Amino acid sequence: MARDQKAKAKKEEVKGKAKEATGRALGNEKMETEGRGGQAKGDARQAKEKTKDVFRH
């Protein structure tokens, strides 16, 4: 279960980076901002999973 969540977090982060880069290349500020938001969401999910791992061991 934890591995699935970690993978999902990484996927969100990578997707956010791609969206940000695409938005920057196209000059689309909204897309760029959404990409940063996706990265933040992925980072937060990763932090949550790491915290859960610390308390599990």
TrEMBL record:
It comes from the Bacteria. It comes from Streptomyces bottropensis. Belongs to the UPF0337 (CsbD) family. The lineage of its organism: Bacteria, Bacillati, Actinomycetota, Actinomycetes, Kitasatosporales. It holds the Pfam family CsbD. Residues 6-56 form the CsbD-like domain. SUPFAM superfamilies: Hypothetical protein YjbJ. Residues 1-57 are annotated as: Disordered. Transmembrane segments: none annotated. Residues 1-35, 42-57 have a biased composition (Basic and acidic residues). This is CsbD family protein.
